[in-house]
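Thread: "does anyone have the structure for this chain?"

Original post by V.I.:
We have the sequence but no experimental structure in hand. Need at least a predicted one for the grant figures.
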Amino acid sequence: MSDRFAENLLTWYRREKRDLPWRKTDDPYRIWVSEIMLQQTRVDTVIPYWHRFLAAFPTVHHLANADRQQVLKLWEGLGYYSRGRNLHDAARTVADKYDGRLPDTYEKISALKGIGPYSAAAILSIAFNKPYAVVDGNVIRVITRYFGIEEDIRSASVRNRVREHAEELIPNNEPGDFNQAVMELGATVCTPKNPQCSSCPVSAGCIANQTSRTDVIPYKSKAKKIPHHKIGVGLIVNQSGKLLIALRPEDAMLGGLWEFPGGKNDTGESLEETVIRELREELGVEVRVSEKYMQLKHAYSHFKITLHAYWCTIISGNPQPKSSEKLKWVSLDELEQHPFPKANKILVEGLQNMQPEDLKRFLIK
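Reply from O.Q.:
Generated one for you, tokens below.
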């Protein structure tokens, strides 16, 4: 069965695979970058980032020698920024320890920052032709339907069963193409809703197809309700017409990115009171809050926020980086040079439509 599955799937893949740029290279470094960027991110989103990133850092050594801010700026908007930081750190390790050549053993490649079981299997199979099976959401959907696995895919035991099946099916020849083919099948044919079973190269052996259960397999229990937070941030302008931004700590969520200072709204607290308290705690200053500049919503992987940005005037104290790596005063033009999280980036884009003289009424008194 495994031979027929692989043969039929690979025949289909050679005919139907999408024309993706990382499929036109055998450079392990470029394949590695693509696999990291593709984690929890749509292919169409990744393509322009991949091209820009490799234009700036064409080799491991270029990336290893790059400034962290430059790396994060090129990652800006792609999300899950720890991927970019880990890729940068791992490139430094590969440059120092392996002379710029990505190691080709599971033990060594898994020891690099940001490379877990999925990434290790994908890189080793695609770049080095080694038979390690990958398991992602697309693979889970294909395997559970093909073998009729009805249990909850959130369960570790079910994921282990999927991995075992994938390892049984993967051929020793063309393992990289096989892994990409299974993922391709899940992305384009064996889709979550309305799968195109009539176009599937392995539908004849698929239990979910044979028993008309593609609508209930795979089964995934409901996730916990995603929390929502209200965030208040302050926009502070100095006598030179520059805005104050703060660098998030490297080990924090969104570490290495810049933001406008502020934080979560506490129960029973107005948003203006949130901004005053947060700027006192983060900067050691007392501020007067004036008008609201912008309100926007943004969703992260495990929570959602509504961000409220207010113009503020410092009435006492000098800003100090009490909870950030450092502070910086920047002009409207200089904002674009700094990497920001998506929510703050939306603020930046709005601010860049202003004229420097428009900021004068918000100057520190």
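V.I.: this helps a lot. Strands lie at 228-236, 243-247, 258-259, 262-264, 286-299, 304-316, 326-330.
O.Q.: and The mean pLDDT is 93.
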